[in-house]
Amino acid sequence: MANYTAADIKALRESTGAGMLDVKKALDEADGDQAKATEILRVKGLKGVTKREGRTTSNGLVAAKAEGGVGTLVEVLCETDFVAKGEKFIALADQVLAQAVDTQAADADALLASTLADGKTVKELLDDANATIGEKIEVKRVARLEGPTVVSYLHKTSPDLPAQIGVLVATEGGDDTVARDIAMHIAAFSPTVLTREEVDAETVENERRVAEATAKEEGKPEAALPKIVEGRVNGYFKDNVLLEQPFAKEPKKTVAKVAEEAGATVKAFARFRVGA
Length: 276
Fold this sequence. Notes:
Elements: H1 6-16, H2 20-29, H3 34-43, E1 59-67, E2 70-78, H4 81-84, H5 87-103, H6 108-113, H7 122-134, E3 138-146, E4 149-155, E5 165-173, H8 176-189, H9 201-217, H10 225-240, H11 255-261, E6 264-273
Antiparallel strand pairs: 1-2, 2-3, 4-5, 5-6
């Protein structure tokens, strides 16, 4: 039977800031000895992890890998840009990306629960880094795409920082050049969906209501309202739907038209911007 009480667990959590499970493991290993359990937590790099859980992670980086028709994109966050551009954090993000690729993780929960070669989970790896680096570090998002062709594109918003925007694009037909051009377009113009059918009906209806109310406020003729509303809703689609956006390199053509002329079909995309 464990040689400690609930009060001992509470006291150790309060004194070290470590999580419940880690505290229990340390007390088990120390046979209830508070001082020894504290040392165990310190050695394992877990001291202070819980204290940082409420902090804001608005900095970090995105990392990506695409080859063989599979692309993986991860967003790893920290608290400050100082840490974000540090070698330790960048190396950690590379390790996280490699694990996401190896395990075919498609979301953050699956990646965090996956086990590394040394027996640690990715969550435990981040906890250790959290304690070592001294900031809250988390994997915010993970995306995985498959297709005949998948390319990745990373963009730096500042030369002093690692990539802050990452894109994956899956295409069928065409070549890597058009796929990469579309990826660069996505990085710059931040579409939210591939086709207008992916915009939920409630959002479209709300856009119609706003467009109609705005037109009435502007004093537009009642007879002209349907056409005005339709035009403004289409404007919303052009802003948010990838295939309907004017292409960055040729604004007179849509992304869909550029892809078609290149013999390509855009099947899917993912875009992460740090903290967004």
